[in-house]
Specification:
With about 300 residues, the protein is mainly alpha-helical. Helices cover about 45% and strands about 0% of the residues. About 45% of the residues are buried. It binds protoporphyrin IX containing FE and calcium ion (CA) (2 copies). It catalyses: 2 a phenolic donor + H2O2 = 2 a phenolic radical donor + 2 H2O. It comes from Olea europaea subsp. europaea.
Length: about 300
């Protein structure tokens, strides 16, 4: 029930307003890009794309307080909150926070060099945001192909969509503890994951020494960390996937052909990514008179 021009008569400038805020924020910090994109994903996989992840609770029991969401960078939240304020100034009470997050997630991809695409709009903001409802709904970096497929399939996303969306790891950062097992304690016969490229392993050992400061984060794409491109897939072919869940896309024969295809053909990746992002944006959306149009993205209206 989402449509591309949902605010055509009620807030015709919404996309321009959001883009302006996102561009300004990006000029202040690059983290705006990965933080906003990941925020969109984490929102959609819990209660659907409904801005549930943005709610702040005085008791620290909202979705954003769940362990799986604690590493969401603040700049993503800040981007949406600022964009909402700018939109409210021109079209009060009309545009949902869920739609603003969707537009902003598209904008950061495009501003980082990704392929332009049109988003569907008309989402309403959710009325539920609970930390306790997060566990088991977001993929973990040690997942294998079957677990990844199963989790995405619950939201009508195919293996092809899942692989394309994993391409989001072409930008952004990870903390060392998310992959430390691959370089220090992989198995009894080998501390290092044998699917890891040896030069890359050395690089990771240097960036993430044992007992490293837990706040240290490293680039997930060691080659073009600030460009939204298909280099992520080229890295996988070369054994430079950061997480088990990244590298498995190449090592599993079932997904390897797609990785090779995306690595060789940027336009094939771009097309698949856009299709998958639009599908991700439809996950469990509330429309019509469901939910509400939040006035402040961090609070329910009442
Ligand atoms: C396929 C399963 C996925 C797994 C297991 C996974 C896991 C992770 C992990 C562990 C991090 C590092 C967090 C940290 O230490 O700070 C991360 C970062 C990130 N993920 Fe994923 N992710 C997956 C899919 C996705 C999808 C579908 C998207 C978006 C479409 C996405 C976008 C990002 C971005 C942009 C970052 C960087 C965040 C930043 O720099 O602030 N990921 N992911
Ligand atoms: Ca949500
Ligand atoms: Ca890149």
């Amino acid at each position: 029930q989402l449509v591309e021009n949902f605010y055509g008569s009620t807030c015709p400038n919404v996309e321009a307003i959001v883009r302006q805020v996102v561009a300004t924020k990006l000029s202040q910090t690059f983290v705006t890009v990965p933080a906003t994109l990941r925020l969109f994903f984490h929102d959609c996989f819990v209660e659907g794309c409904d801005a549930s992840v943005l709610i702040a609770s005085p008791n620290n029991d909202a979705e954003k307080d769940a362990p799986d969401n604690l590493s969401l960078a603040g700049d993503g939240f800040d981007t949406v909150i600022k964009a909402k304020q700018a939109v409210e100034a021109q079209c009060p009470g009309v545009v949902s926070c869920a739609d603003i997050l969707t537009i902003a997630a598209r904008d950061v991809v495009v501003l980082a060099g990704g392929f332009p695409f049109v988003v569907e709009l008309g989402r309403r903001d959710g009325l539920v945001s609970q930390a306790s409802r997060v566990a088991g709904n977001l993929p973990e970096p040690n997942f294998d192909l079957n677990s990844l497929n199963a989790m995405f399939a619950k939201h009508n996303l195919s293996q092809l969509d899942m692989i394309a969306l994993s391409g989001a790891h072409t930008i952004g950062f990870s903390h060392c503890n998310r992959f430390a097992n691959r370089i220090y304690s992989f198995s009894s016969s080998s501390p290092v994951d044998p699917t890891l490229d040896s030069n890359y392993t050395q690089q990771l050992l240097l960036s993430c020494p044992q007992n490293v400061d837990p706040s240290i984060a490293i680039n997930m794409d060691p080659v073009t960390p600030q460009t939204f491109d298909n280099t992520y897939f080229q890295n996988l072919v070369r054994g430079k996937g950061l997480f088990t869940s990244d590298q498995v896309l190449f090592t599993d024969p079932d997904s390897q052909p797609t990785v090779n295809d995306f690595a060789r053909n940027p336009s094939v990746f771009n097309g698949a990514f856009v299709t998958a992002m639009r599908k991700l944006g439809r996950v469990d959306v509330k429309t019509g008179n469901q939910g509400e149009i939040r006035l402040d993205c961090t609070r329910f209206n009442s």
